[in-house]
Amino acid sequence: MMMAHLRIQWPLKVTMLPLLLVVVLLQIPQWSGAAEVEILKRSQATSPVQDWVEWRDSAHSRKRRQALSGTADTVATTAQNDQCSKIVYRDTNTWVASCPVGSYGTEAYGECRACSEECASCSDRTVCTSCKSNLLLQGNACQDKCSNGYVLLQRNVGSSLSVRLVDSATFNMATLSAQQGRLEVRDENGNWGTVCNKSFTLTSANVVCQQLGLGMASALTSGRYAIAKRDMPINLGHVQCTGQESSIFECPLKRRQDTLCTHYEDVEIQCAGPDTSRSCVVPNCPRGFYLAQDKKSDVTICQACDTGCASCTATSTNCLECPFGRFRKPTGTNGSICVATCGNGFYGNTVSKRCLPCDQSCKTCANGGNNNVCTSCASQQYLIGTWCVTDCPSHMCGNTLTGMCTLNCETCGDGQWSNTCTSCKDSKLLSGTSCVQACPPPTLALNGRCVTKCQDGYYPDIQEQTCRKCTSNCTLCTSQAQCTRCALPYLEENGQCVVQCSWPKEPEDVVPRNSLVRLAGGTSNKGRVEVYFGSRWGTVCDDYWSITNARVVCRQLGFNRVVGSRISLSANNIQRAHNDDPIWMNNVQCNDSDASLINCSHRGWGRTDCSHAEDVVIQCSGSSAKRCVRICSDGLYRPPWSTCQRCSGNCGTCSYGASACTGCNTGTFLYNSECITHCPWGFFKDYRLQKCSSCAGSCLSCASSASACTSCHPGYYLENNTCTAQCGPQRFALHYKASVRLVNGKTPLEGRVEMFYKGKWGFVCDDYWSLEDGEVLCRQLNYGPALAVFYRSYFGSNDAQSIVLDDVRCTGNETRLEDCPSRTPGTHNCYLSEVAGVKCAGPNSARRCVDQCPTNYRGVPGGDCQQCDFSCADCVSNAPTTCTQCNDGFVLEGGKCKAACSSNFYNVSAVCYQCHSSCSKCDGPAATNCIDCPLPKYLSGGRCQDSCTGYTLHKEMSQGIRLANGTALSGRVEVYNSLTGQWGTVCDDQWTLHDATVVCRQLGLGPPVATINQHNRSRTTTYYNQITNFSIPIVLDDLHCKGSEPTLFDCIHRGANRHNCHHREDAGVICAPPLVSAPICLPTCDTSQGYRVKDALARTCEKCAATCKRCSTGSATVCEECIEGRFLSASESGQCELKCEDGFHGDTTDGTCQPCNEKCDGCFNGARDDICIRCNTTLDLVLDGTQCVSACPAGKRPVRETYQKNLTNIRLQGTQQVLQLYINSKWIPFCSSRGEWDRYAASVVCRQLGMGLPTRYSTSLVHAFSQLHVNFLRCLGTEANIFECQMQTKASVYSCYQASVQCNASLEAYDEVCTTVNDKPCSNGLCEPAAGCFNTTKIAGYKSACWECPKTYVGDGQDCRTYSLQPHKLVLTPRNRSAVVNQTAAVVLSCGANTSCIINWYHEGKRLNLLPTFTTRLDYTRPKFHYKMTATGSLLLGRIQLSMQGRYECFSKTTQLQLSASAYVNVLSPMPVAILPFRDTTVVQKGANYTLKCQATGVPTPTVTWSRSNGGAVENNGVKYTVTNDSLILLNPTLADTDTYTCNASNNFSTASAITVILVKVAPLFSRTPPLEGIVLDENEAIVLTCGMENFTDTVIYWLYPRSVYQPESRVFVTENANGPTSTLTIRGAVSSDSGLYTCSARNSAGQVDYQVSVTVRSTMVMVNQTVSLECADYYVSADRRVLWSVLRAGRHSNVAFNERYIQNGSHLTITDLRVGDSGRYGCLITDMYDKEVSHRETTLVVLGPPVLKPSPTSPKSIIVPTNTSTSILLNVTIQSSTPMTVVWRRDGVVVNNAHAKQLSNYSLMICGVRSDDYGTYTVTATNDYGSTTLDIAEIADQQVGSAVSHSGDDSSGSSSSATTDNVPVPVVPPSVSSGSEGYVPAVPPYTGNSTPNSSSSAILHD
C-alpha cells in the first residue's frame, strides 16, 4: 500500500488512514477535467481522504478551489450560454462537448456514434483521422499499404524509436501507450530515461505530441502514472521548447547532471490525437526524416534521422541541420555529422551552428560566436583566463601538463603539476607543490612542509596538525612522555630512556615484528637477505647491490649501521638457500630515504638471471636498539649467561639456540625444529598448528588433514580420501601402470624418466626436453601437473640401461609420451649423462578405487583392474598379455601386438594372417599372394614355381656402398667417392632411420632394424670394430635423407669429404634380410625399366646401377640415360653425376653435362649455360648475382676493392689449425688468459685469410712458456683483420688458452664478386648473416661493405640465396610457444626446408644476425646464449628475457622462391602462487548449490585442484561436484558435506593452498503461521500474531510491521518461547493506523524466510441519530492533567467545539444525535501542568446515513426568466453521502435529461436557452445504501411566483428524505472518474463491516 504524508499543522500527532476505511463525505462542485484525471489515478493507490487533502493543498488547485467554493449560486450568464452551446452531444446518459476517441458527434441527432471498424478515430463514420494498428492512414482512408506514389512514414518505431509514452513502471510493448503516459527519451548511448518536469510547459508537450504524430497535447501531469524504476536515469531536464521545433532534441535543455529531480517529478503527457504516427505521405518527407529504401520490403519509406540530427539526407547520420547544442562537422565523405564538441582546433559557432577553426593561438576554444575564447593553448604556451601567453607572469608557474599558469609561490618552475611550488612565502607550508596556510588532514607540518608521517625523532600532534620533537636520547616516540626506542647506549623502559634496566628486567634487541625482510642462514645480525612475497621467503641477487641498499635493510631491521654489505657465504658460514627457494629481487637500487627494501626499485618480482651463489649476504652492527624486558619476546631467545639473542632463519620463536625453532614465521611450517616452506612427503601443511603434521598410517601423502589421503602406500587403494586394502563390492581396485616411470627420486612424484621399450626399461634423453613434455608424462602417470623438469641426469643413470627415446617435442595435449613427436624409438645421439627428469605436483592417483576399469584394463567388480600389455588396446579378461586389439602402429599376431608381422605372415587391418605354405613371404589380401619363395623356387607373378619360361633376375649387391667389419646385414657404412676413387665412412651426426632406409635399400636388403652410432655401438653389436686406419677419409656428414633417395649422395649433406667428425663417430646400420631372395621370373629384360640382358644364353637379366635410368648392354654400371637429378658425364665414362666436371653444367633438358658459357669459369645446372658461379678471369669480368658483367652496378663494388688481404702476419698451423701471429720477426701462437676466443674473432681471422667462414673454433689449455699473451680480446666480427679488434697483451706466461679455427674451404672468398657497400657502419641486419659485414675506409663515401655470399649461394652480400631449379617447401614450421623468464630449457622454434637454402630469422621485423651452428650438440638444456640457429634452420631461444617476447618469422630463400612462417613467443615473468584467503567458516544452505571460488594468482597461471578432509574425493562428476577453472560448485549439498575444503594451486615455481570449513545447515522452516488470508478486526481490539519454527536452536525470529504503528512498549511487545521456538507479536488497543502488512522473519546462518500477513483495523461506524462515546484513556485522569480534543476533516484540524451535542466528561467525549457531518478522525491529547504530552490517542468515526443535500445559501428562491430571451441556467447542489449514490433531476416531478435540459457528468443541470416549457419547480434526488434525499432547488418562471422556493438553514425545509439530514459543515472529498466521462462519480466504498452499527455506540481511543 502506498501512503501519502499529510502536511498538517496542529498539536496532535496524526497517523494515516488505511485505504479500506475512509470517511465518505462528498461535495459536488464544478470540476475541471485535468484535476479529475489526476485525482482518479492517485486515489487508486492511496487513501481518498489523503489524496483529497494533498490535492486541495496544492498550488495548482488553490485558485480552482476558490472559484469552486460551496456556493450554489444558480444564475444565468453569458458564460453559461457559451458553455451550453459547446455541450451538444449525448454519450449514453451524459452530455459532452466532444465525443470520446472511436466515435464522432452528429449534429443532426446530437449524439455520439461509433466510427467504422478500420478507423481508430474519425470526423465522420468513414472519414478517418487515425487508423487501427495494422492499417495506414492515406488521406482520410485506412489501408494496408501505401499507393499512388505515397510513401510510408512511421514515427518512433524500431531503431528510430527515440521518444515514447509509457504507462507502467517498466517498459514492454504492451505498456507502450497510444496517446498518454510517462515521457521517456533515449540518449546517445541508447539508454532510455525520463524527463524532469522543471521548466517543462504545455508548449514543450505539444512538440512531443507532434513528434509522435499524436496531435496536440491535452494535459501535462506528474505522478499520475506508475513511477519509473529507481535505476532508470533522468536523461533530460529544464527543457524549454519554443513550439517551432520538430523534435524535443532540438529544444534548449540541460542534461541530467544539471538537474536535481526525482522520478516523482517525471513529465507525463496526454496527447489529444489523432494518432497519425503510421501514415502515407507524398514523397517529400517532413523535417527529421529522409527518403530510404526499406531492406525487408524493398519499398521506399520515410526513415527517421538519427537523434543527433535535426534533419538529414541520404543516411540517418548525414545531417543537414543540428539540434540545440550541436554543430555540423564535415566527415570527409561529402557528409556532415552533428557533434557536441568539435575537437582540437575547432569550436561550435552558435550562430551558424557549424564547426569552425579556432584562433591559431588556441589549441581548443569554447563554443560561441567568436573563435578566440581559448580553453587550452598550443605547445609552449600557457592559458591565463581565455588568453594564451608564451611566458607566465613572474608570480605564476607554467603547468606543462595542463598548459595553464598556476598559483603564487615563493619559488616555482614549469612542470607537470598544477602548482609546482618549491618553496612558500611568509609562514605558508608546502603541501605537495602547493602553498597552504595549514596542512590538510591527515598531513602534518614538519620543517615548513606537509608530510604524511613524522620522521624518526618526532611524534604527531594531531590536534595541532604538526610533528613535535621527541625528548633527547629518544629516537622514536608516540608522545613527548612516551618513548618507544632509545639511542644507544640508552635502553627503553616503560617509555623512558634509561642507562640500566631495573631489576629483574634484562635488555633485549628491539626487533620489528611482521617485517617483510629478514636475515637468514646466519646469526641475528648477519645472514642472507630474504624478503617475503607471495606466501614464500626468497633471496635477493647481488647484481647492483650497494651499501645504500644494505643501510635500508639494517635500518628496517632495527640496526643502526652496516658492517658488511657484500660478504661471502662460505667464508662467514652462512647457510646456502635451497635450490627450490625463489630469488625474488634483482638489480635492487635503493635511496637512503626508502623505509623498506620492498619500496626500492628492482627488476620485478622473480625476474632474475642469478643463482643462489649470488645471494646477498650482509652484516649489520651488532648492537641494535634495546629495551628492558622480563623475558625474551617472540623471535628472540636467551643463551645461558647472556642477553636475548635473535632467532635465525624462518624461526618465529626458538629456544636453546638460534636454529632450534619452536614456532615459525608466516608461510613456513615447523618440521624437526626447522621452519620450511614445503612439507616433506608423508606430511601435510597444518595451518592450524603451523607445522608439518604426519599423514595417517596408510596414507602415502595427504592434504589439509592427516586422514585426507591423496595417495596410498602399496597394497592400499584410495577410496574417498581414505586408503583401504579392498575396494567396495561394486568397485574396482585400479593400480595404474604406464609404459613410463619415475626412478630414483626422493618421492614417487619425481625422478628420472624411463620408458618400457621392446621388453626393457630405458632412459629418455633430455634433448628438447621441456615442461610440455613433463606435463604429458605426469598426466600419463596420474601424478597431477608437472612442477619442474630436470636435465643432465639430475636423478642419475646407470650403464645397464640404454636411451630409448630422444628429441621429444610434446605440445602438452598428448595422452602419452609415446604420442609426442620424437626420433624413432631406439635411435638417439645422447650420452648417459643426458637423462631427462621431472617433478610432478601430485597427488599420486595411480592406486585408487574406481567405478569401472579404464581403457586397456580388464577386471570384475570387487576385484582388481588388470592392465593389458602396453602394446594392447584391449585384452582378454584375466589374461592381460593376450591382446584382442592393438594400439596404433602395432599389428595383432597370435594374441600379441608386434611392430610388424612375422616373415611368413601378412597384414590385413592390423591383424596378421599366415601365408600359404608355398610362400616364404606374402602380402595381402590373400595368403597365396607370394612376394618371396623358398629356394630353389622361382617367384613369378605372385606365385612360387619350379622354373621360369622367360628371363631370370637374380638379386645382386648394389654398387658404391658396402657394410664393413660386420655381417651381410650389419656393419659400418662405407661409400665410394667416384671423384677421388676412394672408399670412405659416413659420420653419425644427424644419423637417423631415414638415412638407414636409403642405405638398406641401396644394398638391396630389407628395411633398417636399427642405426648404429657412437652412443649405442657397444650395446647394439659386438662385432662392430672401430676403424684403425685413420687414413681412410670420412666422405659424408650431416646427412638429411627423406628415405626415398636412390643413394646417400642424393641426400642433403655437407659435401663430399667435408665434415667435422672423428672416426669414433662412424655410422653403422643393421638391415633386415632382403624382401626377395628367390630368383624372379621376367617375361623380358625391359631396358626402359632399368634392366639389361646379362646372359642371353642363360636367359638372365641384370638390374642397372641405381643412378641409371637406362644402361649399356655391355655393363650395368655404364649409363646411357640418368635418373632425374643426375647428369650423364661429359667424359663418356657412362657415369651419372650429381655435379658435372669443372667448366660444365647439368643440362636439365636432356640430363647431360654440357660446357658453360665462355664468360663463366663455372656455372649452375639448368636449361641455360650462362648461369655463372664464377667469371672467366681472362675476360676481366665480375660476377653480379649469376651474371658476369664488365662492372658492378651502383651501390656495389668488387670484393677486391673493399679490403686488403693480409697474409703476412697471420696463419693457421698444423692439423689443429692453431692461430699464429707474426710479431717481432717470429711466428707466435695466439693465447688468451680468459678463453675469449669466440665466433666473431674466428670470423675475422677466416675473412682476413680469404678462407670464408669458420666451421669450428676452440681453445685448449696449454702449459708452456708463451712470449705473447692476450689478456683481453673482443671482436665485433666487422673488423677487416684481427689487429682491429680490442686487444690487450702481455708477455711471459706459463699457461694460457691456445686458439684454433677451421675455416670452410668451400666458402673461400672470391674477389671478383659484386658486393653491397654501405654509407654507414656495420649494424645488425645491414648484411646477410651468411655473408657478414666489415667496416672499411678503403672506398670513398662508404663506411662498410658486405662480404660476398658463400660459394654455394648467389647474391650481393646483402641478400644471399640458394640457387635452385625447383620451388622448395617448408617441412618444419614454428608454432606459438610460451616461456618463463630465465627458464632452464631453451625454446625451440622449428624451421626447415626440403632442400638446402638460406634461412633468416626476424624478431618483430628486425633480422637476427645468426649463422647456422654445425656443432654436433647444442646445450639447450641450460643454454648460455639468447639466440642460436641450428644447422637445419631452427631457432633456439635461451636465457629467456622479457625483451625476447614477440613474433618470430623465419624466411627461407632460394632463387626460385621465398617462403616464410611465423610464431609468437609469449614470455611470462615468473610470479609465485598466491591465494586470497577464504573465510574461516562458510555456512551453506542444505539443498542450495554453492560456489566456492579459489582466487589464485601466479605466473605461469597456476593449476587449481580441490580436496576435502573427511569426505569423498572432489571430482568433476557433475553429480556431487562441478569443478571449473578456479571454482568448486557443491551440487545439492547435504549435511554430510560439512567438511574442511582445501584449494591447492601450483605452477612451476611454487604452490599455495587455502582452506575453509563449510558447514551445511538447514534453512529455517515455519511450523506455525498466522492465517494466510489475513486478519480483520475492529478498533480497540488486540492484534495477536504468532509464528513458530522447526526446532533449530540457532534460529532467530523477529517482526516487521508498518511504520504508522504507534510503538510504546506498553502497547506493542513481543514474547518468545524457546521450546518452539515461537514468537508472538501483541498490539493492544488496535487503531486503524495499525492496518498494513506484518512480517514474521526467521533467520539462521543458513538463510532467511519471511511470512507476511495483512491486518485490517476497521474504524468505528455508527448510524445517524445515534450516540457515541470516545474514551481518551483507560485510567483515571487526575485534575492536574488537561485533555484536549480535536477533529480532522477534509485535511483540516480544528478543536472540538463543545455544545449540547458535543459533551466532554473527564477523558470521555460523547456525541449525541449523530449526523453524517460528524464523521472524521478524532484525537485526544493529555498534557501535564507544564503542557508536556502525557498520552496521545486517535480513532476514526464514520457516521452512516442517507445522502444530505444542500442548496447554495445565497441562491435565489425563484428565478425569473422572461420568455424569448436566450438565457441559460446552471443549477448546482451540495451533496454529502457515506456511500456511492445515484442522482436524478426532475421538473414538476418529471425526470429531466435531454438535449435541452442536460444533466452533466458532475450532476449539475444545464438548461440551454430557457423556453416556456422549462418553467416549473426543479428538485434533485440522491439515493445511497441507507436511503434517499430529495431537495427542491429552484422554481423557474416568466414572472414572480407567489410561493417561492425557500432556502433556509433548516435541513428539512424544502426537502423530503427517508432519513434526517443536517447542515453541519462537512469536508469536501473529491469523487473519482468513471471511464470515458469528463466528470466525477463517487468512488467511496460501501460499508463492508460484518456488524450492524449500534444506535448508541461507544469508542475508546487507543495509542
Global morphology: extended
Helical/strand content category? mainly beta
**Share of residues in strands:** 35-45%
- How much helicity do the residues have? under 10%
Mean model confidence by pLDDT: 77
How many helices? The count is 11
Count the beta strands: 165
Poorly predicted regions are 1-77, 1019-1025, 1415-1421, 1841-1903
If you compute it from the alpha carbons, what radius of gyration comes out, rounded to the nearest whole angstrom?
Answer: 53 Å
Major β-sheet profile = 7 strands, mixed
* End-to-end distance: 22 Å
Describe the structure.
This protein has 1903 residues and is mainly β. It contains 11 helices and 165 strands. The strands form 57 sheets. Strands 10, 11, 12, 13, 14, 15 and 16 form a 7-stranded mixed β-sheet that branches. The longest helix has 11 residues, at 33-43. Mean pLDDT is 77; it is low at 1-77, 1019-1025, 1415-1421 and 1841-1903.
